[in-house]
Amino acid sequence: MDAITSLVLLITLAAVALYALYWVVRKAIRDELEASRAGKPGPEPTPDRHDPTSE
Description:
Oligomer: single chain
Structural class: mainly alpha
Radius of gyration: 20 Å
Number of domains: 1
């Protein structure tokens, strides 16, 4: 494979991966918004190890 073909393939695969990631994040945000509107509790936040108030 020459350099231009490799570059085009890399750009195409990166675009497909980023597009898939976009839809995963979009679906997760939509689900969280629907859950908050329905009054369902979300996951419990984990305390920060460096937060002195969590001890």
